[in-house]
Design goal:
The complex is a heterodimer of chains A (317) and B (354).
Chain A: H1 15-24, E1 37-42, H2 51-59, E2 86-93, H3 102-114, E3 134-141, H4 149-153, E4 159-161, E5 167-169, H5 179-183, E6 190-191, E7 199-200, H6 206-210, H7 216-220, E8 226-230, H8 231-247, E9 254-256, E10 269-273, H9 293-316
Chain B: H1 8-12, H2 17-28, H3 34-39, H4 56-81, H5 87-101, H6 103-111, H7 130-155, H8 163-170, H9 173-196, H10 201-204, H11 209-231, H12 236-264, H13 269-272, H14 280-304, H15 311-342, H16 345-351
The chains are: A alpha+beta (317), B mainly alpha (354).
């Protein structure tokens, strides 16, 4: 999958062509498009080891964040940021047994024992499969949206789509205007307030992709919770995995960003979740910010027209 | 916002909290229900969105940009459609427009993470991005505002009597006024569109922020022009026209703001609510109350009761100052409440559930 470095075509023509190239810049032909690449993050396999966070920081030479203890869970990273491009969440659902479910589970266990599904176990043995408490883990990352609001908002053209259809910030172009920060519906991209004051986020290891390697987080993931590959193939894989889980009665399993057409095109980095997206702090169906430009402009024009006509009317008298 | 500290009275407001709270419930149509909101799924209430990086520079830019745009448009209307007396409005308006537009690029550049890269804004002309269009709009408007004010100065004899000013004075100012006004209207309104085209629930849920900002641009500009004219003792007939325009602009602004609060519902709480992080106390006292309804009522009174008389002069100055204060606090509370809105995970998730 390695890419041949594109030859820079040298203009050795007349002085006219060299002058033109001086004015418009020496254009390098666009890179040959590659199949769209993305992540499939299968949270049903995540064990919360945070290897992805560390691998990402190491490969991308990102500084460590200030150590904090959130006190709410094992999640002491807190959020994705300009210097944190993978973030492992720990969703602890303790106390789901309330609402009178506890008897139901004990009945379930008793039934399973009498049916011979589980063998006799000495008292006190943990039976995690029948526990209603849950510990969900998810490695959150940039979604590399098919219609990326950050890219649509960017006024400098710093945020581009690469030949792998990933969303990439060109750090030498970004001037830190901060519009992408408020455009992103997932709170992913951020301005580095302590470093170079430009916007940063996951690059899907563009440099590694160029050399035919998989991104650092996917490489480091010990359970293959993070899978990397061609988006279409990965989506097929995700549907298969969902089918397997459904077959095994994991009814709450669902895909996020695969067939739901989020942001009118789906996500190139998508997830298999074990509860509603909101449990993972993911918005169910976020609006595409650029869709607001036309209605907002129309209302503005209406107000401007009313006021303009009134002004003309008053001054004409 | 840590950079600027307001006196306590502005953050506390002057309306009793329970009245502000009732107004919030009434206008948004949403009564906060903490128990039900706590039932909604959330991830330890960690924010879903990143907080905006915009601070006081943007607030003042929105304020001055609105003034520059409004002054230019009003001056052009006065120049194109007004009587000989209305030339005073045109002259004052064009000068004020240039004065207001001068700080804008400085504020915008200072706001960037990398100010030395401000020219990167001009790499693209991107219709989809209000930030890109706004930059182009500001650049071209500044050009028109500058040339128009120079022509005005040449005609007023401020620049002396040599060939330069004579050449400038011969340029067709009214021909420039038409595209300049179009750009002015754009500059006055695009800031609202820019905020609407984000993921912040408060800014993006209703689509009328641009309409509010442009009417506020017109109301604050007519307030500023009439303030200057009043201080330089211009005949009240001219002022009367300006005041009527101001009255209409305030009315449109109030309607727009009401539509905004209704349409935004629960997501408008950071702007109108009275909880510690919410900005309702400032909003109701200095935007809706002191900056809109009060000057509008005073203006109504002035327009109804007698056209002449020197008694109106003091009241007129008060009205102008109130409107200008309201315009500033509208932008200030809107930006600050946007910060609050971005950190409210449950409302962000609610906003995306449709």
């Amino acid at each position: 999958m390695a890419i041949e470095p594109t030859q820079r075509t040298t203009t050795r023509g007349s002085s006219l062509t060299s002058m033109v190239s001086l004015l418009v810049g020496n254009k390098v032909p666009p890179l040959a498009p590659q199949p769209a690449m993305g992540f499939f993050t299968d949270t049903s396999l995540c064990i919360g080891c945070k290897a992805c966070e560390i691998a990402c920081k190491q490969w991308n030479q990102l500084p460590a964040s200030e150590p904090v203890w959130t006190g709410s869970s094992y999640d002491n990273t807190g959020q994705l940021s300009a210097i944190t491009w993978r973030h492992v969440q720990f969703i602890e659902h303790i106390g789901r047994r309330e609402n009178g479910q506890s008897t139901k589970i004990e009945t379930q266990i008793a039934e399973a024992k009498s049916d011979g599904i589980i063998p006799f176990t000495p008292p006190g043995t943990a039976l995690p499969f029948f526990n209603s408490d849950r510990w969900l883990m998810q490695s959150d990352v940039c979604k590399h949206c098919a219609n990326a609001p950050c890219q649509e908002a960017c006024p400098t053209g710093s945020i581009i789509r690469t030949e792998f259809d990933t969303v990439y910030v060109q750090q030498d172009i970004c001037n830190g205007c901060g519009y992408c920060v408020v455009a992103c519906p997932f709170g992913v991209i951020a301005r580095d307030q302590y470093g170079d004051h430009t916007a940063h986020k996951c690059t899907l290891c563009y440099d590694r992709l160029k050399d035919g390697f998989e991104p650092a987080c996917a490489k480091a993931c010990p359970t293959d919770s993070i899978q990397f590959g061609e988006v279409e193939q990965l989506k097929e894989q995700a549907r298969e995995r969902l089918g397997i889980l459904r077959e095994r009665e994991v009814k709450e399993a669902r895909l996020y960003g695969v067939d739901d057409n989020i942001l009118e095109g789906g996500l190139n980095s998508f997830f298999l979740l074990l509860d509603e997206p909101e449990v993972y702090n993911l918005p169910q169906n976020p609006q595409r910010p650029s869709n607001n430009v036309v209605p907002a402009s129309l209302w503005t024009i209406v107000a401007a027209a009313v006021l303009g006509l009134c002004g003309i009317f008053f001054f004409r008298e | 916002m840590e950079e600027t500290h307001l006196p306590q009275v502005f953050t506390d407001g002057i309306l009793p909290t329970n009245i502000a709270e009732q107004l919030a419930t009434l206008t948004t149509g949403y009564a906060p229900d903490p128990e039900r909101e706590l039932q909604e799924p959330s991830y330890y209430d960690y924010p879903v969105l990143k907080a905006p990086v915009w601070r006081w520079e943007i607030i003042w830019y929105f304020f001055f940009g609105g003034l520059a745009a409004g002054c230019y448009v009003i001056a052009s209307i006065a120049a194109l459609f007004g009587s000989r007396e209305d030339r005073a409005v045109a002259r004052t308006g064009y000068y004020l427009s240039l004065l207001s537009v001068l700080p804008c690029p400085i504020l915008l550049t200072k706001d960037l993470g990398r100010p030395e890269r401000f020219l990167h804004m001009l790499r693209l002309f991107k219709v989809k991005s209000p930030m890109s269009m706004g930059t182009w709009g500001l650049v071209s408007f500044s050009l028109f505002s500058g040339i128009t004010a120079l022509i005005q100065a040449a005609r007023d004899g401020i620049l002396g009597r040599w060939w330069g000013p004579r050449l400038l004075a011969a340029l067709p100012q009214s021909l420039l006024a038409i595209p300049g006004s179009a750009l002015g209207a754009f500059l006055g309104g695009y800031t609202g569109v820019l905020l609407t085209a984000t993921s912040i629930p408060l800014w993006s849920r209703s689509k009328v922020l641009g309409a509010i900002f442009i009417s506020s641009a017109v109301s604050t500009s007519s307030a500023l022009i009439s303030l200057v004219l009043r201080l330089t003792r211009t005949p009240s007939r001219v002022l009367h026209k300006l005041e009527r325009l101001e009255w209409v602009a305030l009315l449109v602004e109030m309607i727009g703001l009401f539509a905004f609060l209704r349409g935004t519902g629960r997501a408008a709480r950071p702007l109108v609510g009275t909880a510690p992080a919410e900005h309702g106390r400032t909003f109701w006292s200095f935007v809706a109350g002191g900056g809109l309804v009060l000057p509008w009522l005073l203006q109504t009174l002035s327009l109804l009761v007698g056209r002449s008389g020197k008694r109106r002069s003091g009241r007129g100055i008060v009205i102008s100052l109130l409107v200008l204060m309201g315009g500033y606090f509208l932008r200030r509370t809107m930006i600050e409440a946007g910060h609050t809105s971005s950190s409210d995970a449950r409302t962000t998730l609610w906003n995306a559930r449709r």
